[in-house]
Structure formats: C-alpha cells, structure tokens
Amino acid sequence: MTHEPEIMRAMVLSAAMLPLELQRRCIPVPGAGELRLRVLACAVCRTDLHVADGDLPLPVLPIVPGHEIVGVVEALGPGVEGYRIGDRVGVPWLGHSCGGCDFCLAGRENLCDTPRFTGYHRDGGFASHVIAEAAFCLPLTLPEADAARIAPLLCAGLIGWRSLKAAGEGAHRLGLFGFGAAAHLVAQAAVIQGRDVYAFTRPGDHEAQAFARSLGARWAGGSNECPPQPLDAAIIFAPAGELVPAALRAVRKGGRVVCGGIHMSDIPAFPYRLLWEERSVASVANLTRADAREFLAFAQAHPLQVHVKTYALRQANEALADLRAGRIEGAAVLVP
C-alpha cells in the first residue's frame, strides 16, 4: 500500500512584478542542522514588497517570501540540539552567516560576506510550512501573546531596535519618519526608555498621526513640517530618499540620521550646510542574533502593543497591495 506525500501550501514569486501564486508542494524533510516548522503566522515586511516589486536583485527564483515567522517545530534534522517537537520558535531575516569572515569574527554577522536571508535566498514563511537553520531560529517565550502579534517583532521590531540603538543612548528627542510596522513598535520602546518621540507621516495623514500620538508620541505631523524643537536623532523607515535632507533639517548640531530600510529611492542633492556641524547619516543593515535576544528580552519585560491586520495565506497579494498603498495601521500578518 502506497501513501500519498503530505502536501504544503506556499505563495510563490516566480518573477518580479508578477503576483504571488498559490502552489501545493510536498512537505520537505529537514536536513542536518535544520528544523521544519508548521507556520502559525508570518508578518508582511516592506522588504517582501521590495522583493516582489523587483527593487532588490533576486538571487533565487522562484522564491517563497516572508521572514517574520512564528512556527511550531514539527521535525528535527540530524544533529539538532536544544529544540523539541512542539516548541514555538521565530525565524528572522538572517537565516545563515558563515561565521568565518572578518565581519562575523568581529561580532557583526549582519554584514557577513556570504549570508543567506529568509524569504530571499531560501524559501520563507508565506507558506504553511518552512525549513530553517536551527542555529538561526529564536526560542519564543513571550507570555500570553498570539502568534500574529509576535510575528512583527521578528523584523519590524528587530530592525527597529537596531535602528534605535544606532540613534544613540543620548538621543532624547527622537524623530521617526514613516509610521508603519517598525515605527509603531520603536515609538513604544523609545517612550519606555524615557525618550520623547516625534512622528513624521505622509503629509495630511491625520489617522497615522493620531495613531502615533495614541502610542505615546509627544508630537506628530507631516514629513514636510518642522518639529517644535530640534531633534537629537531621527530614524527613517520610509523608503523615500528625499526624507534624508528633511531629517537633517530637523536634527540639532551633532545629531544623527539613521536610515533603517533595506532599500530607499535616490537621495537628492542637498546643501552641505545641512550636514555641517557634525551631523551624520548612517544606515542599519540586517540584524544579529544578539540583537534578537536583546530585543525579545526587552519585549518580554515591557509588553508592546502590536497592532496587526491579519490575512489568510491566499490573500498575500492583497496584503502586499495594502502595504504598498499605505492602508495598514501597524503590521500586516498572514495566518496560514
């Protein structure tokens, strides 16, 4: 008697600018050092949008996007230790680093020379099941939190946390440009740390401004407005290069502007006087496992309000369209 193979579902990108296609596949077997997870939730990140829209080069096609994954361990590959069937774990963007390049040896695995990213180099979480390298999975112990509200922590939260650290401990007056999934988490973390948050949204987006104020922002306005006083630092999450000179105008002498996205439109020319007086512009790239442990510990000690809009797996294209159009307050999450 023969047994039919178990089937999984996945939303697959075959080429940039094409809609994702629902496919049925055989459930994969984890290899050495890998876990197979049944996906409980996967948040939809702006990076997924950049992948689908072709803003980033596509090293692997077809590909299943998604890198903010909460899942349950369903099978362990050879050599895996520290996990058991039934454990709840998270899978972030960084899916592998070499461990041997200069950056990895210096504790900067986010800049690894030969990384593999979830949902970019290897199939991600827009699926019912996913394979992940156990060493890069994150044990999840957050109490009384459903999977859909944990998922955005795994990229929006982690990149936001790294951006917040890059802004500097002395950045008491902090500007956030683009109030989406990452900013709505960072704003809360910053307020908990005793900082004053100034939120910049699309001009005229009064709903987003009210949302920011509801999460503790001291001031909220359009990106074309000046804050009531100079900022110590600003973080840009929106993928709009024209916000860099706008943020430089808003920060004081010695202030810092941090670009938190993986992709941004070209930065327009701006007068040197905006950069002068020791202002600086920096970028944040990817994340480290140390970032993840630190932020998840913070989130456990200081529960954050995670605002989500959930979609069925087959609605992945709708979720991407809503994100592209700015129709989501908080984060979009697929729930297979």
How would you describe the overall organization of this protein?
By secondary structure, the protein is α/β, with parallel strands linked by helices. It has two domains: 196 residues, Quinone Oxidoreductase, Chain A, domain 1 (Alpha-Beta Complex); 127 residues, 3-Layer(aba) Sandwich (Rossmann fold). The chain is 23% helix and 26% strand. Strands 3, 4, 5, 8, 9, 16 and 17 form a seven-stranded mixed beta sheet that branches. It has a six-stranded parallel beta sheet with strand order 12-11-10-13-14-15, sandwiched between helices. Helix 4 packs across helix 5 and helix 4 crosses helix 8. The radius of gyration is 20 Å and the shape is globular. The model has no long low-confidence stretch (mean pLDDT 96).
- What would CATH call the architecture of the largest domain? Alpha-Beta Complex
Strand content: 25-35%
Shape: globular
Largest sheet descriptor: 7 strands, mixed
Specify the helix fraction band: 10-25%
CATH class value of the largest domain: Alpha Beta
Whole-angstrom Rg: 20 Å
Termini distance? Answer: 31 Å
Low-confidence stretches: none
Structural class: alpha/beta
**Average of pLDDT:** 96
- Spell out the helices and strands N to C: EEEHEEEHEEEHHEHEHEEHEEHEHE
Q: Report the CATH topology name of the largest domain.
A: Quinone Oxidoreductase, Chain A, domain 1
User: Number of DSSP strands?
Assistant: 17
> Could you give me the name of the CATH homologous superfamily of the largest domain?
Medium-chain alcohol dehydrogenases, catalytic domain
Count of separate DSSP helical elements: 9
> Into how many domains do the coordinates divide?
2
Pfam families: ADH_N, ADH_zinc_N_2
Organism: Variovorax paradoxus
Domain Alcohol dehydrogenase-like N-terminal: 31-140
Family: Belongs to the zinc-containing alcohol dehydrogenase family.
